[in-house]
Design a protein that fits this description.
Radius of gyration: 24 Å
Helix content: 40-55%
Strand content: 15-25%
Largest sheet: 7 strands, mixed
Number of domains: 2
Number of helices: 10
CATH superfamily of the largest domain: BsuBI/PstI restriction endonuclease, C-terminal domain
Distance between the termini: 69 Å
CATH class of the largest domain: Alpha Beta
CATH topology of the largest domain: Trna Endonuclease, Chain: A, domain 1
Strand order of the largest sheet: 6-5-7-8-9-10-11
Structural class: alpha+beta
């Protein structure tokens, strides 16, 4: 039996669904364990690895090519299911971070290292007997890394990472200071694009919502003033430059409410990196100086143009 077939046998033995007993899942397991075509499973390792590295490993060692743009397929059809089954874990970084990695859990590594050895059946039975508890343990670890946030008075959680940390501060620090009495109409998450969205209110205001359009990171609305705050949370890309404002204006061309464009940064150092790109008639909020705004020209301060 070649290693591709043995990887499928392992996935079947631990009772993964049939959809995760296919070639792409087996190749992913081989890459995560760093098992080459003629390696014994006793050589398996669990070093941290990216999906890009998985694709590269499969190409180099098994001469099977997956396109770079298939990373989302790996993520949605294999990685998520492996993680839910507690056979892999992630390193807790934001999913859009270049430092985001996966590895086999220690318990699953110990199991696969015994494949084709006399103790395999014993190891398999021990793994299966504790599998449900392992799922709970690793699920609890992921939940522990998440950050609680209040959205319109209701509790939610953000995935870990700088971007979501900044979004949390926008909602809990910027909003009460500079957008009093406003409600959140939209906020995404690095792991879930539409963590919170009030579709009914957005449509009532005139938004045309399409999955092809990139919403601002945070949208707040103050009904008393009829003002909408479009806020971009910038940790590495995407400030309120002229191009971004034009995109939002096109997305909201039927919206009559006053529009305010704000770029939020975690610190002054990040702000200075993007200062030259920011559009006039927009605002800047810096989380580590939360009581102040920087205004980029215009005829009034913090108001629609």
């Amino acid at each position: 039996m070649d290693n591709l077939d043995s990887a499928k046998e392992i996935l079947k033995a631990i009772e993964m669904p049939e959809k995760q007993q296919n070639d792409i899942s087996a190749f992913t397991l081989l890459a995560l364990a760093r098992i080459r075509e003629h390696d014994n499973w006793s050589k398996a390792t669990n070093d941290w690895i990216r999906i890009h590295d998985i694709i590269r490993f499969i190409d180099v060692n098994y001469d099977v090519q997956y396109a770079e743009n298939s990373r989302e397929t790996f993520r949605k059809q294999v990685i998520h299911q492996f993680r839910d089954a507690a056979i892999i874990e992630d390193n807790g970084k934001a999913t859009n971070s270049p430092h985001y990695r996966y590895r086999l859990t220690g318990e699953f590594l110990n199991l696969v290292q015994t494949y084709d050895l006399p103790q395999w059946n014993t190891s398999l039975n021990e793994f299966l007997s504790t599998h449900e508890s392992l799922i709970s343990i690793y699920s609890a670890k992921r939940e522990l890394l998440k950050k609680p946030v209040m959205i319109n008075g209701n509790p939610f959680t953000f995935s870990p990472g700088k971007h979501n940390e900044l979004q949390k501060q926008i909602l809990e620090e910027f909003g009460p200071r500079f957008a009093q009495e406003s409600e959140c109409l939209y906020v995404g998450d690095t792991a879930k694009k539409d963590l919170f969205i009030n579709t009914e209110k957005l449509k009532e205001l005139g938004f045309v919502i399409s999955t092809h359009d990139k919403m601002p990171d945070v949208i707040l609305y103050c009904e008393d003033k009829n003002w909408i705050y479009f806020i971009e949370a910038v940790t590495s890309t995407g400030p309120m430059d002229f191009k971004r404002i034009n995109e939002i204006n096109k997305l909201t061309e039927n919206v009559d409410a006053g529009k305010i464009f704000i770029t939020a940064f975690l610190d002054f150092r990040t702000f200075k990196r993007f200062a030259a790109d920011l559009a006039w008639d927009s605002e800047v909020w810096i989380a580590d100086n939360p009581n102040h705004l920087i205004h980029f020209n215009g005829d009034r301060f913090l108001g629609p143009r």
